[in-house]
Amino acid sequence: MIETDIIIVGAGPCGLFTVFEAGLLKLKCHLVDSLPQPGGQLTEIYPKKPIYDIPGFPDILAGDLVDNLMKQIEPFKPGFTLGERAETIKKLEDERFLLTTSKGTEIVAPVIAIAGGLGCFEPRKPPISNIVDFEDKGVEYIIKEPELYRDKKIVIAGGGDSALDWTIFLSEVAAEVTMVHRRKSFRGALDSVEKVEALAAAGKIKLLTESQVVGLNGNGKLNEVTIKHKVDGEFSQPVDHFIPLFGLSPKLGPIADWGLNISRSAIEVNTFDYSTNIPGIYAIGDVNTYPGKLKLILCGFHEGTLMVQSAFKHIYPDKKVQFKYTTVNGVNGFE
């Protein structure tokens, strides 16, 4: 049985940064994540995608941000249980929580911080009857390694930020990029829309609006898609890869059965300290909800920072939190 001060469910960026803030208060953390490595969506979905809203970094690759966070928390020696899903919790007689994972690992702590991002998620798939036949054989729902598409012919479907951003990025990598969107307007950032339209006008990509990919063809591997245009009807196009980017379908998984107040698949919290309706359990990052909520990594960092102050008081009700600036004490002074 593993014992710690704070169990952090989710090893994404918010969960990792919480380790640092907890370490400044000499609180030990143990992280649990169903993914086999730390980083959450940043590692699993888009490690090579640049992020632009991290203070002090005009841009940083998602994977590099995770590497930096891991280096930042190294002095505080957190524990990790990876590749295992948080399944059940039980309140013990001493008021601590016993968390059991999908593989039977037991972890005990007085505080649980849920930093599960979108929770258990799966990609939203287009309604193409034989799409499963080509998964990992030319159909990918997540771009993990852009070099896979170098000098290839690709079709990207979608109209949100992810589809726009990857169309822009891969226009410099792939031999041919076609972006297919079923509407005329896009849901993504205006700047990205303008860049995609400029690339199309310059002939660097092919942009098809009011269109959908309705068929896939190939012999063991994808080599052709059928596209249906609202006016022009159906036509075929040779491809090496089809990448439908319609977002993720989030599910809380077993956390939904923990007795927490939940609204629209997100955990309701008190913005004073991001506590839930169960004393000792907090929720930070994309997994929580409150009036004015913004799903940004930056906001999750803020939430984790305030949360650990409250967690300290929950663990040590008779002690006073001694807030110290790292500019004065450095980090070694907190180990």
Automatic annotation (TrEMBL):
Transmembrane segments: none annotated. Residues 5-293 form the FAD/NAD(P)-binding domain. GO terms for molecular function: ferredoxin-NADP+ reductase activity; flavin adenine dinucleotide binding; NADP binding. Its EC number is 1.18.1.2. It comes from the Bacteria. It holds the Pfam family Pyr_redox_2. InterPro entries: FAD/NAD-bd_sf, FAD/NAD-binding_dom, Fd--NADP_Rdtase_type_2, Ferredoxin-NADP_redctase_2. The keyword Flavoprotein applies. FAD binds at C14, D33, Q41, Y46, A86, F121, D286, T327. Its cofactor is FAD. Binds 1 FAD per subunit. It catalyses: 2 reduced [2Fe-2S]-[ferredoxin] + NADP(+) + H(+) = 2 oxidized [2Fe-2S]-[ferredoxin] + NADPH. Keywords: FAD, Flavoprotein, NADP, Oxidoreductase. Belongs to the ferredoxin--NADP reductase type 2 family. Homodimer. This is Ferredoxin--NADP reductase.
